[in-house]
Amino acid sequence: MTVLNGQCMCGAVSVTATSSNGSIGACHCDQCRRWTSSMLMTFAAEPGYAALGPVKTHKSSDWAERAFCEECGSALWYRMTTPGEMHGHTQMSAGLFENAGGNTLRLELFIDKKPEGYAFDGERRQMTEADVVAAYAPTPNEDAQ
To answer: Are 125 and 106 in contact (CB under 8 A)?
Structure first.
């Protein structure tokens, strides 16, 4: 695995990360579209990533937080905060890295929320809102932990 170095738009935040599986996911949920004015494209980061600079986090749901540069607002990552197996799982913003770190688009999340004005060519796994909630939202037993 290759360690990737990236930065936010203004350069105030530098990020070091390793992609865990070489693939990119595109999320079309309402929050990602509002955050980026499009979809958020990310890759799963191995534990041990680092970000130096003015990083700000925002609890965006009952199970996750989003990080951004406090200076320019660049999206940095989406991290699972709910207890359980997914806790700490981090999706690093692909745009921080040259050529998206060489990762390949293999997944679209919230495909049923994607606006009709754009689409990607090629085949990839696509998950609806119901699929995503079933796969990643905390279960009542995890909330009690």
So the answer is: yes
